[in-house]
Specification:
Shape: globular
Number of helices: 15
Oligomer: single chain
Helix content: 25-40%
Strand content: 25-35%
Largest sheet: 8 strands, antiparallel
Distance between the termini: 56 Å
């Protein structure tokens, strides 16, 4: 039995891992639970890091792997923990070259300049923030480290820039402070050391066309992409995710180009022995691709999609890599031809007046085959109290669905929305 320590464990993802064919070979240990890592207003990274090292070093048996499927701070901390115990992992510097948005863009400009937008760093706490920006309106402004488009703003004029800067000054600390703690463990170039977690990046808008995410890994220097997932967006600025749908509808020739660009970049930064997902936009009219960002983990949002279509959750890839093994992953052996994660959103603040019981949710999932519902709200809460939402919407529920056509996916989602007893009272 291999002892696998799961950093940020939750029951849904643990159940997916325990359902793998190889699960009998593993003994899963909760290094930390999800609630200890992600549900507070701040990330206690120093406590998490020192506590994790203490738990791992005091474990009486063998520590065979440390895994995580969550974004910051888990994905950023994993290489430090693995390195301390001599376990397989990408280097911490390679991970930062993906996760530090400004450092990543600098590296991308060095290696694949034709596939990225113009950008610049911005110190939102300096009075001359406007003069620092070298881009014309409109552009996106976002912290160099955040998740789920938190504090990401579409800026079209001076007044929107001022509003974005004011909001950033009030809220950026929740990511900046813990990110800066972790940056101390890296040997940073001077130009990166000067752009810490309290900084932002402004970028030209590239969000035209179709968005797609490649899921893959690098093992022993060789890159493999095993799936491509479409990201469908909604909202005033098209910045809020509506659903992820697998497999992608983007032509294979375009996917191959994305794979080639990905390989060029990850090879250049010496990223090895780890999973990744990388997001692109494809402009069909010009047949050009733009790289949005890279995440140094599997996407847990995609795990049920792979299970539904390919027959296995890609947690298997994560586990194999963490154990130093070449991943072996099936293709199109699942129960459904298509699968999607729907993110049920509302774009105005509201009071949650009624939520379904667990029994009511189970009754719906049993009646509508191939569905799984995760509720993110509780009765009598305000949506503005949800943590880490994007700047323009609130995600109130997640619905995973499998089906044999896109039309079937959409119909099942409509049926779930109609059946779920969920009541929101708009707030003026």
């Amino acid at each position: 039995m291999k002892n696998i320590f799961v950093f940020g464990a939750d029951e849904f993802n643990l159940s997916l891992m325990r359902s793998l064919d190889s699960a009998h070979e593993y003994c899963f240990h909760e290094l930390y639970q999800y609630s200890e890592v992600k549900t507070g207003k701040e990330f206690p990274v120093e406590t998490l890091y020192e506590g994790a090292l203490a738990r791992l070093n005091s474990y009486p048996g063998s520590v065979d792997a440390i895994v995580g499927y969550l974004d910051f701070p888990v994905s950023t901390m994993l290489p430090l923990l693995c390195q301390s115990l001599g376990l397989p992992s990408p280097s911490f510097e390679a991970v930062l070259k993906c996760e530090h948005k400004y450092w990543s863009r600098l590296e991308q400009r060095r290696v694949i300049p034709e596939y990225i937008p113009n950008f610049c760093s911005v110190d939102p706490f300096k009075d001359d923030y406007k003069q620092q920006i070298t881009l014309d309106y409109p552009f996106w402004l976002k912290p160099v480290k955040a998740v789920l488009s938190h504090l990401g703003f579409m800026v079209r004029n001076d007044s929107e820039l001022e509003m974005a800067i004011m909001e950033t000054r009030k809220k950026i600390y929740c990511f900046a402070k813990p990110f800066n703690y972790l940056l101390q463990f890296a040997d940073l170039p001077d130009e990166i050391a000067a752009v810490d977690g309290y900084h932002c990046i402004a970028e030209e808008i590239i969000s035209h066309g179709q968005q797609c995410t490649l899921e893959g890994y690098v093992f022993d220097g060789k890159l493999c992409v095993y799936g491509a997932v479409d990201s469908i967006r909604e909202g005033e600025h098209g910045s809020s995710f509506s659903r992820y749908q697998y497999p992608s509808s983007i032509p294979q020739t375009v996917q191959d180009k994305m794979i080639a660009v990905t390989e060029r970049f990850l090879t250049a930064i010496d990223f090895d022995n780890g999973p990744f997902n990388i997001e692109y936009y494809w402009d069909k009219d010009s047949d050009h691709i733009w790289l949005l960002e890279i995440n140094t983990r599997i996407s847990k949002s995609h795990s049920p999609l792979f299970r539904n279509v390919d027959g296995k959750s890609h947690h298997q890839v994560m586990l194999d890599l963490a154990l130093g093994k070449q991943p072996v992953f099936p293709h199109r052996r699942g129960l459904y031809k298509y699968s999607a994660k729907f993110m049920w959103r509302t774009h105005k603040d509201a009071l949650v007046n009624l939520v379904p019981t667990e029994q009511e949710i189970q009754a719906i999932t049993q009646r509508i085959a191939g569905t799984d519902i995760q509720l993110h709200v509780r009765e009598r809460m305000r949506l503005c109290d949800l943590n880490y939402q994007d700047s323009y919407s609130y995600e109130i529920a997640t619905v995973f669905i499998g089906g044999d056509s896109e039309q079937e996916l959409l119909q099942k989602y409509h049926d779930v929305q109609q059946a779920l007893p969920l009541e929101l009272v708009p707030l003026l």
